[in-house]
């Protein structure tokens, strides 16, 4: 479930909760969606409510230093570690 400031992901068949937390900033929930790829990968696409650099996705996660991120690149241009 994607809400403006909350992300909740649960595997229906097992009841295992993968994510249940408040997000750093708001998203446009009605324009956000998820899909299952190859039966094992969850692809979540969320549109930010407004342009901002997030320090993390879920509050309480390790924060990134936005000064160390090259904002000229698109997300898909970064390596997996970044």
**CATH fold-level topology:** Immunoglobulin-like
Strand content: 25-35%
Distance between the termini: 26 Å
Count of DSSP strands = 5
Please state the overall shape, judged from the principal axes of the Cα atoms: globular
Number of domains: 1
Structural write-up:
With 82 residues, this protein is an all-beta fold. The protein has one domain (2-77): Immunoglobulin-like (Sandwich), CATH 2.60.40. Helices cover 0% and strands 28% of the residues. It is built from no helices and five strands. It has strands spanning 2-3, 6-10, 17-22, 33-37, 41-45. The chain has a three-stranded antiparallel sheet with strand order 1-2-3, with no helix packed on it. β1 (2-3) and β2 form a beta hairpin. The mean pLDDT is 87.
Keywords:
globular; mainly beta; Immunoglobulin-like; 82 residues; three-stranded antiparallel β-sheet
Reconstruct the topology from this structure.
Layout: E1 2-3, E2 6-10, E3 17-22, E4 33-37, E5 41-45
Antiparallel strand pairs: 1-2, 2-3, 4-5
Entry summary:
This protein has 82 residues and is an all-beta fold. The chain has no helices and five strands. It has one domain (2-77): Immunoglobulin-like.
